[in-house]
Amino acid sequence: MSLAPRAVLVHRTTEYEELVARHGTHGQAAFFLASRGRDIEEVAERHRRTRRALAKVTAAIPSTWRQTRLERADLDRFLFGPEDVVVVVGQDGLVANVAKYLAGQPVVGIDTDPGRNPGVLVRHRPQDADVLLPSVLAAGTGVSELTMVEAVADDTQRLVALNEIYLGAAGHQTARYRLGLDGDGGVAVEAQASSGVLVGTGTGATGWIRSVWQERGGDGLELPGPSERRLLWFVREAWPSPATGTSLVVGELSAARRLTLTVESERLIAFGDGVESDAVELTWGQRVSVGVCEERLRLVG
To answer: Is 260 within 8 Å of 179 (Cβ atoms)?
Structure first.
């Protein structure tokens, strides 16, 4: 017998909850914010909107479905099942946080603060949930398949991200490595010293990758679309010297090509979507390959 669908509501602790947990009471949190020129009522109102959104989405889950709630901090300890429908209630970044833990499950993004969030990934409003959730698994429901990026180390460590992967030194200090491009029948390799390498998707082209692309004046490259099987990569602040070069500093990767990095520092890290606390650690001589991920994020709407 197949299992009934399970709605997994993913949310994060609100700023108000974090403030009260840190300072003990509402009054002490209000005093702390006031000392910094902020009004706690603004923070409390966003908290109330989030709670109302969660309640509305929960009430919209079909009665025949199972359901559970999941806080962002617990994502790495949760086992998603093939029958899950993932409902992200919060900000765009929360969708990116959950993407790397999924294997094709549909994701519904619910925006708890329209106008404050860009709404690139949380595309729906809480009031849409009554109609949206019962139809998620129906044939013909519109789903966008978003490209992700992966980094695979020679010791089998693997990192997946929806927006971008950064490879470099912890603290963004000088990283030393050998950078190569393969997949075109030949291999070009260059020793480099830089502030790190950034490899991003079309979804990431609304964030960090876009800012680097704009700084470089586009470098003759077009930003990929979120569903394109194409990545852009940039070396940040490459330093020319007798031992290091700057000829391989920007480019794109099709699904058939990979960017490879061989570590020539005591310790480098790779992390995705800005979450440096969840990093892959790399040591001298290790090799990591970065490219288009086979899995894609299936975003409803």
So the answer is: yes
Give the model's pLDDT for residue 119: 87
pLDDT of 207: 85
Look up residue 8 and give its two tokens: 């997994």
Give the number of other CB atoms < 10 A from CB of residue 50. 23
Alpha helices in 136-261 (DSSP H): 208-215
State how far the Cα of 162 lies from the Cα of 146, in Å rounded to an integer: 8
Give the position of tokens 């502030």. Answer: 195
pTM for this predicted structure: 0.89
Can you say how many angstroms the Cα of residue 156 is from the centroid of all Cα atoms in its chain? 21
Closest by alpha carbon to 86, among 64, 59, 113, 68?
68
Give pLDDT < 50 ranges for the chain. Answer: none
The DSSP line for the chain is -PPPPEEEEEE---HHHHHHHHHSSHHHHHHHHHTTT--HHHHHHHHHHHHHHHHHHHHHS-TTSEEEEEEGGGGGG----TTEEEEEEE-HHHHHHHHTT-SS-EEEEEESSBTTB--SS--B-GGGHHHHHHHTTSTT--EEEEEEEEEEETTS-EEEESSEEEEE-GGG--EEEEEEEESSSS-EEEEEEES-EEEE-TTGGGTHHHHHHHHTTTTT-PPPPTTSSEEEEEESS----SS---S--EEEEETT-EEEEEE-SSEEEEEETT-TTS-EEEETT-EEEEEEEEEEEEEE-
Tell me which amino acid residue 90 is: G
pLDDT of residue 185: 55
Residue recorded with tokens 């997949």: 183
Residue 5 makes CB contacts below 8 A (sequence gap 6+) with: 62, 65, 66, 83, 84, 85, 137
What pLDDT sits at residue 28? Answer: 96
